[in-house]
Amino acid sequence: MGIWNAHTSVGNISGSLLAAAVLDYGWGWSFIVPGALIASSGVLVYLFLPAYPEDIGYAGANASPKLDSAESQNQKFNAVVVETNSGFKEGSSSRKGVGLFEACSIPGVIPFALCLFFSKLVAYTFLYWLPFYLSQTEIGGEYVSVKSAGNLSTLFDVGGIFGGILAGYISDKLNARATTAASFMSAAIPSMLLYRAYGHISSNMNIVLMMIAGLFVNGPYALITTAVSADLGTHSSLRGDSRALATVTAIIDGTGSVGAALGPLLTGFLSTKGWDAVFIMLTVGALIAALLLLRLVIAEITEKTQKPIPVSHGQQSLEGNGVENYSTDAYRVLSFLNAYEMKHSYLLLSHI
Q: Which GO terms describe its cellular component (predicted)?
C-alpha cells in the first residue's frame, strides 16, 4: 500500500513542476494547464474504469472459493433458477452499501479519521505554503526565486514517497497500524522544529531537513488513507461485507480533507504574525494526531504482549468430527429442494 500510495506524492511533484514551468506565461496558466489535465483524467476514468470487478466478468471480493464439480454444478443451477424467478441479475446495480452510522461504529474509524484530519492539516500546509515560505526565507545568505522555490519544494514530497513506503513496511512487519502512525507523527514534531531552526543555514541543509520532515509527515497520511482504510473497511463486525470499504474510506479521507482545507486557511492568518506561529500550529497538530491514536496504541501493545490462549480439546474434537460439514451438507440439500418443484423432490432425494 505504501508503494501504491506513492502516486499521491508523484502527482504533487508533477503538478508543482508543471505549474512552475508555465509560470513565466502568467499565474493563470499555473491553474489552467493542471486543471485541463485533471479534467481530461476525469473523463478517462469515467469512460474506462469499471465500478466493480463483476461488471467485466471477474469474481468479486465476496466470491466463494472454488468448489468441486458436483457442488459447482448445483450452485450454477440454483443461480439460474433464482435469476429466472426474479428476473434480476446480481451485479454492481444490486449492491447496497452500509450505513454511515454503522461504518462510524467500527472500532478505530473515528480515531483514525480525526488523526488524518490533523495529519492532512500539517501535510497540506506544507504542500501549499512551502514554496512561498522558501521564497520569503533567506537560505544560505540569499533568497531563491519563485520558480526555484516551487521546484525546491517538491523534495518534501520526495521524502513523503519514502515515508509512505517505510510506514507501510514497518506496519506490515509489526502488524501495528496505530503504533506506526503515532510514532511517525511524534517524530514529525522535532523534524519540523529542526527544519525551522536550521533550514536557513545552507541549501543542502534545507534539502536534507525538508526531506526528513516530508518522510515523517506524509508517512502516517499515506498509511491511514490506504492500509488502515482497507483494514477497517473489511472489519469482522461487517460480516465479510467488503462493500463497506468505500464508505469507511470516504469517512476517513473526507474528515482528512477538512483538515487539508483548514490548515492552509489558518496559515494565511498566522503567517502575518510570523512563520514561528505557523510552525507552532503544525507541531500542535502533529501532537494531537499522535495523541488521538494513544488508546489504539495501548491496545496494540497489550495484544502483542499477551500470551495466546490455546484452543481447548473439546473445540478441536468438535471440529474434527465434522460438525461444520454437517451444516454445509444440510444447506446443499435445502438448495436442491428450493431449486426444483415439489413434484420432483422425491426423485431428487432418491439420487442423493
A: membrane
Confidence of residue 36 (pLDDT cuts 50, 70, 90): very high
Reduce the DSSP state of residue 140 to 3 states and report it.
coil
Burial label for 77, CB within 10 Å (0-12, 13-18, 19+), is: middle
Alpha-carbon distance of 158 to 3, in angstroms, equals 13
336 or 243, higher pLDDT: 243
Helix, coil or strand: residue 147: helix
> How many Cβ atoms from other residues are within 10 Å of residue 288's Cβ?
16
Separation between Cα atoms, residue 197 and residue 176, nearest integer Å: 32
Report the topology of domain 6-50+105-305: Growth Hormone; Chain: A; (1.20.1250)
Please report the DSSP string for 288-340 in residue order: HHHHHTHHHHHHHHHHHHSPPPPPPHHHHHHHHTTHHHHHHHHHHHHHHHHHS
Q: Residues 6 or more apart from 72 whose CB is under 8 A from it?
A: 66
Residue 74 CA to residue 324 CA, distance in Å, equals 20
Higher pLDDT, 281 or 151: 281
Whether residue 201 is predicted with pLDDT greater than 50 in this model: the reply is: yes
Long-range contacts formed by 67-75: CB under 8 A, 24+ apart: 71/332, 74/332, 74/335, 74/336, 74/339, 75/335
Distance CA 215, CA 161 (A): 7
User: Residue 2: pLDDT band by 50, 70, 90 thresholds?
Assistant: low
| Alpha-carbon torsion (278, 281, 286, 289), positive or negative | negative
User: Per this entry, what is the length of the chain?
Assistant: 352
The residue whose grid cell reads 489504539 is 296
**What is the C-alpha to C-alpha distance for residues 336 and 348, in angstroms, rounded to an integer?**
8
- The C-alpha R_g of the chain, in whole angstroms, comes to 27
Considering the chain, what is the average pLDDT of its residues? 76
> Which one has a higher pLDDT value, 86 or 298?
298
